[in-house]
Amino acid sequence: MQVTVGIPAYNEEKHIAAIILKLQKIADKIIVCNDGSSDLTGLIAEKMGAIVINQPKNLGYGAAIRSLFLKASELNSDVLVTFDADGQHRVEDIEKVLEPIKKNEADIVIGSRFLNQDTNIPKYREFGIKTITSIANISTDIKVSDSQSGFRAYNNKVLKEIVPSDHGMGVSTEILIKANNKKFRISEVPITILYEGDTSTHNPVSHGASVILSTMKFISIEHPLKFYGIPGIIFLVIGLFFVVWTIQEFTATRQIWTNITLIGIGSTLIGTVLILTSIMLFSLVSVVRERRSD
Ligand SMILES: Nc1nc2c(ncn2[C@@H]2O[C@H](COP(=O)(O)OP(=O)(O)OP(=O)(O)O)[C@@H](O)[C@H]2O)c(=O)[nH]1
Ligand SMILES: [Mg+2]
201 CA to middle of ligand 1, Å? Predict the structure, then answer.
């Protein structure tokens, strides 16, 4: 089995050499996506013998994952393992994420940070990751414990059929949503993550907000009727209830109760807009899908 390890790297000159050195013992190919780093990341990776994709400027984590998918697919890799360049992932855990793919029990394997009892993730990070994971779990039938882990293995079928499009950290959820729709088998194995010092590239608040927004975007595109239609119907029913109430009060007392009227009109309008949005988006997505399969 041809194992390719893909490393998204942004200003990681401190760690990249040691990681490549360790990976060379177990990987057939190592691809580093050097994403417009201003340090020596790209040069070090090249000198160490890795295949280096140099993005002309910083395009984001998701864009790097997309480049790694395309390159691994072009190289006909049987499996791509994505591995962080910041020293938080352990090379020893690679065998664990490979195993379900080798046994043909899964198409995607996530190295989860929450299946180990002794996790040392800072509490605020754990809260953020679990919130984002719950949003994806509740709104789709994906059931995972760590949707944000960058330590994953993808088999050849996934590499050929999924092309990630999100440029940011939302790509992790995007891939799971797309894989779930294509009925790929997703499984998880416990891995150990090392948190020593500040390894985060992005501010946690903007990171979390952008991942949540992008998750909503992908869920709404995949399930527009459910995502906009159900809240739309709820708003419409509430709105109509208040409108009827207003009319009844008016016929009985000849008085208009402003608050009830406003709630009625507001809710009815919001409901109508949401229902129209769900229908339009549903039609648009259906047309795009039909075109793609032509
Ligand atoms: N190519 C590319 N890689 C990036 C970018 N931002 C982060 N990375 C890489 O993605 C990996 C994970 O980045 P982190 O910022 O540590 O994200 P994280 O591991 O989810 O966050 P922490 O839990 O705070 O460490 C590292 O290898 C980074 O070098 C980017 O803009 N482009
Ligand atoms: Mg990290």
Answer: 5
